[in-house]
User: Fold Protein-tyrosine-phosphatase from Polynucleobacter victoriensis.
Amino acid sequence: MKQYNILFLCTHNSARSVLGEALASTHQSGRFVGYSAGSTPGTNVNPFARELAKEMGYPEEKLRSKSWDEYGLSDAPQMDFIITVCDNAAGEQCPFWPGKPATAHWGYTDPSQAQGTDDDKRQAFKEVMVGLRKRLDILAALPLERLDAMSIQAELKKIASAK
Assistant:
């Protein structure tokens, strides 16, 4: 079975995109390899995102905030899908992605802005995680190997409306 590379983008690459990377890479279907990056990456992965990624079984040594420039280099893995998960990244001028990957915006409120107790903040991260997992489940169920590029693009955009 072919594995598909998915790059999740968010401006600072510290929360939502990191969750996407971990979810895709640990997805039960085994169909995905997740990556994440940002236009202006921060210095650290958010501790709540780190905690959830580790709970999923994602290797802690892979958790780092990265620039999207890394994925435009000639030796970078070629992406099949590019998914923006924050409104800022969706509106930014992205670099050229080799291979013409399918793209979509699966927007989520920034859980790192959640107020309240640590449990309240943890819940905000879990809500993003659940939403991303649902969308990845839908993507994994598609007969991707039988769809052409335009159909895959259309399906990614349909998945964006899944709640």
User: Anything to note?
Assistant: The two ends are 28 Å apart (CA to CA). Residues 4-153 form a domain with the Rossmann fold fold (CATH 3.40.50.2300). The mean pLDDT is 92. The beta strands are 4-9, 32-37, 81-84, 102-105.
